[in-house]
Design goal:
Layout: E1 9-12, E2 14-22, E3 38-44, E4 49-50, H1 60-66, H2 68-79, E5 89-95, E6 101-103, H3 107-110, E7 120-127, E8 133-137, H4 143-152, E9 160-163, E10 170-173, E11 179-181, E12 185-191, E13 198-201, H5 217-223, E14 236-239, E15 242-247, E16 252-258, E17 263-266, E18 273-286, E19 289-294, E20 298-301, E21 308-322
Antiparallel strand pairs: 1-4, 1-20, 2-3, 3-5, 5-12, 6-13, 7-10, 7-12, 8-9, 8-11, 14-15, 15-16, 16-21, 17-21, 18-19, 18-20, 18-21
Length: about 325
């Protein structure tokens, strides 16, 4: 097998048009196609593309196929049950309109489909006045009524627990949680590498073909866990400028805030390190290689090249994700 190059890997995000999306992701430096509503930027995931260097132009999926142990590491491989998947999917989400009332399968339900489940976490970056998150059923005994309304084509949002999010909050949604992201929210999401979504209800929205979007009511009922009612997670200060936002069996996420010339070590072994700069500028160094980053840019460090270092050139705010 050809040896892979050392050091951080800078990525180009994959932009995903959505009928509920908007143009807010332009603030992170993304060149959005004219006239297209973009709901998601996949910062790190199968369809993200290497920006520069000897691997330029290749996707993370292609790199995983070439050498999964090098890119995912022991912990990353274990998190996907040995499947050749990059173990993290990290997104920016611009919800100009509400997303569907939906649910995702867990690992057991997803395995027959050839993939993994979808446990996810949201960190709220911005919230318009009156915006809401929908986090599980208001009454865990209300699944039968949710099923009845969904089958009848009736709206279901009032059956869910509505939460008014605050910027800076983080929420963990285990697979099986019935949920929806309301309108007017900008979210940083870290999740298992799955795209399987089952919709109960899409608020009567029409797709680009002018027809109602597809629902998956029976599939949703088969994987829904009516008892799940997520709530915001208290952040944990780990060190000056470093705050643990969420940790689970599948991923962890830390917020790093640095003044000019300050640095932070990136050193969780056995997992790729994914660093997204949200504000400011800096450099990411590992294995003797340094890459400059600015707001909106994401870098992956393969496990074998850790520890790495994030150095702020001006003040900087970054998210650091790992398995």
């Amino acid at each position: 097998m050809t040896a892979m190059p050392r050091g951080p890997i800078e990525l180009i995000a994959a932009l995903d048009p959505k009928p509920w999306g908007g143009r807010a992701l332009e603030q992170f430096g993304f060149a959005l196609p004219p006239g297209v509503l973009i709901g998601e930027a996949h910062l790190a995931g199968a369809d993200a593309v290497v920006r520069s260097g000897p691997l330029a132009g290749r996707t993370l999926a292609e790199l995983m196929a070439a050498d999964p142990d090098w890119l995912a590491g022991e912990r990353g491989r274990a998190a996907t049950g040995g499947l050749p998947l990059f173990p993290l999917l990290i997104k920016l989400i611009d919800a100009r309109e509400a997303l569907s009332v939906q649910v995702h399968p867990d690992d057991a339900a997803a395995r027959p489909l050839g993939g993994v489940g979808k446990t996810e976490a949201w960190h709220i970056l911005a919230a318009e006045s009156g915006s809401l998150l929908y986090l599980g059923l208001d009454d865990p005994d209300g699944l039968a009524e949710l099923a009845r309304r969904s089958r009848a084509g009736e709206r279901t949002g009032d059956l869910l627990r509505a939460h008014a999010p605050v910027p800076g909050e983080t929420l963990l949604l285990p697979a099986g949680t019935i949920h929806a992201i309301g309108a007017g929210l900008l979210i940083y999401e870290i999740q298992q590498p799955s795209g399987v979504t089952y919709r109960f209800d899409d608020w009567g929205r029409l797709g680009s073909d002018g027809r109602p979007r597809e629902l998956h009511i029976e599939e949703s009922l088969a994987v829904a866990k009516a008892e799940l009612q997520p709530a915001p997670i208290p952040p944990v200060k780990r060190a000056p400028g470093r705050t643990l936002l969420v940790t689970s069996d599948y991923f962890s996420l830390e917020r790093i805030e640095l003044a000019a010339s300050e640095s932070a070590t990136l050193d969780y072994p056995g997992s790729p390190a994914v660093i997204t700069l949200l504000a400011g500028s800096g450099t990411v160094e590992a294995a003797g290689v340094s890459i400059a980053v600015t707001a909106g840019e994401t870098v992956v460090i393969p496990p074998g090249d850790l520890p790495g270092t994030l150095i702020a050139t001006g003040s900087a705010v970054a998210f650091y994700g790992w398995v």
